């Protein structure tokens, strides 16, 4: 009974504030494999419902693909459950190295190192490579895990306005005296679904002698004609020095991440990255299944092609129905509502219509930019999307937002 009353009271107060602010996050219990259609218990204790999932990162529909499941069973039988070690002591199997080589080949880089997650990759890479003589210049909307990784590194943490190349250029000019300059960006920005201007970024990097870092978690496996990612889409294969990405989204969605890029940088991570040196190796089941995922996506573009078609259908249908969506070419399609309560109310009504789509509001997105973020998957069939569209239109009509401009929605609901 050492937990002090003072601490308990303090945290009870904090949690109350979070709830009263309408920011308390509740989990919905899924009682089926991850898929286009899932069985969900919500609210907790309610009778489970079959709903169409419109908010998973399961972009290629591989999370429960039969061949991936089979490969993970095989991996379990052949190589056991856990490694009980970090990589450099006795945690490396041949299949870990095979997976690293496949990622290198797919991403068209020089070498790859696996981490337990992309969060870990981002936490480890900057500190392993840069020091107080260097400057990291990051897009202001980079993922939280990049912000944390940069903080762990002694390099100067700088930033440029979101996708603003003039501002980036000014920052590069300012820091010409640093030992190394590294431009840091997401490939695809997860809240808006927009892509970084990697072609222009690489040109600036050449002009001002900078390195380029891209976290491609929301692109690896499907963006670009062969699904390699944002660097393929923007025509800069081979020009990105450091790519980090996750195995926890399109690539089967279990867990794992990596740093892929210049071989010296990858080797520095093997020698110095703390999450690599001090955290357990990826489990063989996940590695074996991920190897299968790489074979599937390198063997055929069928799934990324289907995803592209589904995305075009979904974007076009929403626009025709009169929704206000963010422009872009990615399967992240945000439906803008601006008002936080409206995003929660519509999400709840959609659920009653059999559609699982979550409302996002501050602090996940800026104040006054609440939305429902939909994410399309190759696991969706057109009839899933048609059913989802019907439900969105029904709920959109109820709230009278179809065909309305941003200003009109704000006038009706406020910010
Ligand atoms: C999801 C995501 C991560 C975290 O990946 P994990 O492997 O789940 O840790 C990191 N960066 C970006 C940009 C992401 O979208």
Helix content: 40-55%
Question: How far apart lie the N and C ends?
Answer: 45 Å
CATH fold descriptor of the largest domain: Aspartate Aminotransferase, domain 2
CATH architecture of the largest domain: 3-Layer(aba) Sandwich
Structural shape:
globular
- Mean pLDDT over the full residue set: 97
- What is the name of the CATH superfamily of the largest domain? Type I PLP-dependent aspartate aminotransferase-like (Major domain)
Number of domains: 2
Compressed to H and E, one letter per element, the order equals HEEEHHHEHEHEHEHEHEEHHHHEHEEEHH
Spatial arrangement of strands, main beta sheet: 4-10-9-8-7-5-6
Round the Cα radius of gyration to an integer and report it. 22 Å
Largest sheet: 7 strands, mixed
Strand content: 15-25%
Can you list the ligands bound to this structure? pyridoxal-5'-phosphate
Q: What is the strand tally?
A: 14
How would you classify the helix and strand content by structural class?
alpha/beta
Low-pLDDT runs of 5+ residues are none
- The helix count comes to 16
CATH class of the largest domain: Alpha Beta
Write the layout of secondary structure elements.
Elements: H1 5-20, E1 29-30, E2 37-41, E3 49-53, H2 66-79, H3 87-91, H4 94-107, E4 111-115, H5 118-129, E5 135-139, H6 144-151, E6 156-160, H7 165-174, E7 181-186, H8 198-207, E8 211-215, H9 230-233, E9 242-246, E10 257-261, H10 263-272, H11 274-277, H12 284-299, H13 302-321, E11 332-338, H14 340-352, E12 355-356, E13 359-360, E14 370-375, H15 382-398, H16 406-413
The structure holds pyridoxal-5'-phosphate (PLP).
Pyridoxal-5'-phosphate is lined by residues 117-119, 143, 145, 186, 190, 215, 217-218, 246, 248, 257.
